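Appendix B. Raw example, untouched.
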Amino acid sequence: MKKEFCAERLKSARLAAGLSLEELSVLCGRIVSRQSLSNYETGRMSPRESSLDKVAKALGVSPEYFKNKGFTIDMPALRSTSNNPLSSEEEKKLQNTLTYLAERYINSEKQAQIITAFHNPLQGFSVANQQQAEQAALSLREHWQLGNGAITSVCRLFERKGIKVMEADLPKEILGLSTWGEEKYPLIVLNIDRRLTTSERTRFTLLHELGHLLLTISPSDDPERLCNQFAACFLLPRATLIEEIGSQRDFITLEEAIDLHTTYGISVAALIHQMKDLCIISIEHYNYWFDEIISKNKTEQGWGEYPFDERPQREKRLNAIINHNNKNNETKKDKVKLNNKKHTNHE
């Protein structure tokens, strides 16, 4: 037991759950003290099996997680907004956190007895150019019966389709990442610090990461660009965009861009990129937009906001079901005890 226990995983799980040592001790029914938890995390002590079971239950995972066993994930390729790579220690911490979040999510589904299976309708869909990225987006929309209209919540859509969306304290350079758990669960993790982004950018990040999960793209074909094109066409299909503004334009007004931005939940910058990719506007007008308008307001302040917040909610709902079931089970046990007591007194 002493050789198997991984202190780093306990600390990663506690922090990912947003708990202090004192709060975790309370969740363990005070059977495991704050001091003991601190000693476990620093490696000064290793927990007994009974203590580890309490800690694991409080954190929503199996004891195997703390022994570097059980649930496994593929470590994702980290796509950051900077060129500074993470250190090996930072990557290890991140892997522990992602493994914990994924296992906790799957365990919540199992306990609530509501497991949403996932099927990849784009299995083997090879994408090597903008046209194929657009076709992939349209094929997925058709398979999910979404039509060509606006999508109110990308998070909610993903959760319905079996994609596990979670939030974590990621390095600030990383807005989101994606990977697979147990080679069958699609996982997307968003940076919990929403000061770094906007709702529109979160929607785009979710779909960009979905592209990495579902599409077959050769590294030589620029996966980042193609996943961006996939995301843009999924949010606002070509046919819908043309119905809104026409198939070819010499000039796009800021008012038009803001209207589309707040209706379809796509940033103005991504919208102008898409118009250029679909040849609705010229390269010259695209350059004008970025040189004269977007470069002067990169955060798009004052250009309207998408009215719906994009945050994962399914795990919270699952936990509400689990808590409700646990209370019902406790009530049933109390009734059985009371009936047994009455029966004994009667005798």
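End of appendix B.
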